[in-house]
Amino acid sequence: MNEVWEWTCGKFEDADKMSSPLQGATMKFLAEWQQAKRVLEIGCFTGYSALAWYEATESTKAEIITLELDPKMIAASRRTFDKYKVNDRITLIEGPAQASLAKLSGTFDIIFVDANKEGYEGYVKYILDKQLLSPHGFIMCDNIFARGMTISTDANPTLPEKVRPYWTECGKALKRFNTFCKNDTRIDTILLPVYDGVTLIKWKPSTFLELAN
Ligand SMILES: C[S@@+](CC[C@H](N)C(=O)[O-])C[C@H]1O[C@@H](n2cnc3c(N)ncnc32)[C@H](O)[C@@H]1O
Q1: Cβ burial, residue 209 (10 Å; 0-12/13-18/19+)
Q2: Annotated Gene Ontology MF terms (predicted)?
């Protein structure tokens, strides 16, 4: 994982899209704890987080499906998966995430939502409607603070002007997403104030019982 992190930092100007090593360690902790057998990731980039899921599920030999749209990032992540010989359990599905989601069946124990921020609400709604989340599973959504812009456009005076318009739009979309999470009666949600804001979502116990019966 460290090598991929360093390679990505050296090669991609927008390497800050990648999870940090500390975040990678957190993801590994959660996946080991969860004993996940199937993991879905929306937003692959160079494959760093997919490798974290892979390493964390050595004992359960989980199937990991990761979705990516950008041809440059598809090539980069394929390079990662080939180099580290992890194609036995990682499958990369190319194309827009919403269309890729429609190809999936069964349930996932961990679903990591880390792609285009205006898509989060649609992805999570679809996952819940189609019951792609297993009864004991959780969804983890990254960048919920959008560098502070979800809270207020004044929240981050040092945000570079070059990226401010992008994160401002992300902030608006994530505000709508937060409202969706708060109002959806099927789920419990917690927004952790760590990294760039991480939301965890699980089924409510009542919904869980309905699903189990
Ligand atoms: C934040 S990066 C993912 C980082 C990665 N999960 C990690 O931690 O290393 C988001 C990725 O989502 C991809 N993406 C953006 N919009 C997408 C879409 N509609 N469908 C699929 N992938 C998309 C981008 O090309 C980018 O590689």
Answers
A1: exposed
A2: O-methyltransferase activity; S-adenosylmethionine-dependent methyltransferase activity
| C-alpha pair distances (Å), 184 with each of 26, 35, 72, 187, 189 | 27, 27, 36, 6, 10
Closest ligand 1 atom number to CA of residue 143: 1
DSSP letters, 84-102, are: TT-TTTEEEEES-HHHHHT
Residue-wise pLDDT tens digits, 31-42: 999 999 999 999
The atom number, within ligand 1, closest to the CA of 43 reads 12
Pocket test for ligand 1, best of 23, 27, 40, 70 (most atoms within 8 A of CB): 70
| Exposure string for 174-199, b = 16+ CB within 10 A, e = fewer | beebbebbeebebbebebeeeebbbb
Q: What is the tens place of the pLDDT at every residue in 130-149?
A: 999 999 999 999 999 999 99
The amino acid sitting at 54 is Y
Q: Tokens 């069946």 sit at which residue?
A: 105
Separation of first and last alpha carbons in the chain: 40
Q: Would you say residue 157 has pLDDT above 80?
A: yes
Return d(Cα 33, Cα 165) in angstroms, integer.
38
Residue 108 near ligand 1, beta carbon < 6 Å: no
Cα–Cα distance, 17 to 43 (Å, whole number) = 10
